[in-house]
């Protein structure tokens, strides 16, 4: 059975729909041609979704992993009082729920933040892939470890950073991730999420996020207009929030605007 997002519009899978996953995993290892072909030829079911649709639901057993092909999604939980905590953002190339491959049920939900195209990969085929190709299994585990490192960074942000520092740190993290995915360059990227979403990710109120954005803008380090973020001084921004990209295992290509 496919997850809730199957209510979205079905799309035709291309022969290399999973090639975006290959590009992501090649950051963590070098593959043979046979391994590369095994990844790109994974069977997928592709869906086109609108914003605000659940891809994965808390406590439901899954038979597929979700791969983002286009758009943004978030991993989140909702507490008994109805408040939402977002604890990761996902962009093209991300497996949003790799944990479901090894656990009987997730303890989180995944929701689209924008219109999105997602690919569902059967657990059975992923298990076959990692059992036949240990190098691919290692790359997937390294990706999972980076995901855990991002969660630790967010926890530090809510625990010891000021609200301004936490938001600045998140904006740096997103730039490095988007640049590696070919979705950002020249310290500029599209940030298609609302202040409410940022508030739920940072554990702040909408009003507080608005004040923080205003304070950071007055420093002249970046501008945000029509969901486009332009960083004007990368060194000043990273010093301000003590951002070190080593936990992402990516090296940003920085050219000051």
Short description:
With 257 residues, this protein is α+β, with helices and mostly antiparallel strands. The protein contains 8 helices and 12 strands. The model has no long low-confidence stretch (mean pLDDT 90).
What does this entry look like structurally?
It is a single chain. The chain is α+β, with helices and mostly antiparallel strands and 257 residues long. Helix content is 38%, strand content 21%. The chain has eight helices and twelve strands. It has helices at 19-25, 33-40, 123-132, 134-159, 163-180, 195-202, 206-218, 234-241, and strands at residues 9-11, 45-49, 54-56, 64-70, 73-78, 84-90, 109-112, 116-122, 184-185, 188-190, 222-225, 228-231. The strands form three sheets. Strands 1-2-8-4 form a four-stranded antiparallel β-sheet. It has a four-stranded antiparallel β-sheet with strand order 3-7-5-6. The chain has a four-stranded antiparallel β-sheet with strand order 9-10-12-11. Helix 3 (123-132) packs across helix 4 (134-159), helix 5 crosses helix 7 and helix 6 (195-202) crosses helix 7 (206-218). The longest helix has 26 residues, at 134-159. It is globular. The model has no long low-confidence stretch (mean pLDDT 90).
């Amino acid at each position: 059975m496919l997850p809730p997002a199957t209510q979205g519009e079905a799309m035709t899978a291309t022969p290399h729909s999973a090639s975006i996953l290959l590009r992501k995993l090649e950051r963590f290892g070098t593959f043979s041609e046979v391994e590369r072909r095994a990844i790109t030829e994974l069977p997928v079911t592709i869906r086109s979704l609108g914003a605000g649709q659940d891809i994965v639901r808390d406590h439901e057993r899954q038979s597929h992993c979700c791969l983002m092909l286009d758009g943004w999604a978030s991993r989140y939980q909702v507490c008994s009082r109805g408040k939402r905590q977002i604890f990761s953002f996902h962009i093209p190339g991300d497996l949003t729920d790799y944990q479901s491959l090894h656990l009987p049920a997730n303890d989180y939900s995944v929701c689209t933040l924008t219109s999105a195209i997602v690919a569902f990969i059967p657990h059975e085929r992923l298990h076959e892939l990692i059992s036949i190709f240990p190098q691919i299994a290692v790359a997937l585990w390294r990706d999972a470890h980076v995901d855990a490192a991002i969660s630790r960074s967010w926890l530090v942000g809510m625990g010891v950073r000021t609200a301004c520092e936490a938001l600045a740190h998140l904006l740096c993290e997103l730039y490095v991730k988007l640049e590696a995915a070919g979705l950002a360059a020249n310290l500029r990227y599209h940030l298609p999420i609302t202040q409410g979403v940022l508030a739920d990710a940072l554990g702040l109120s909408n009003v507080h996020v608005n004040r923080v954005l205003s304070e950071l803008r007055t420093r002249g380090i970046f501008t945000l207009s029509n969901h486009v973020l332009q960083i004007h001084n990368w060194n000043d921004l990273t010093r301000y929030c003590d951002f070190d990209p080593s936990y992402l295992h990516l090296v940003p290509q920085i050219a000051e605007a």
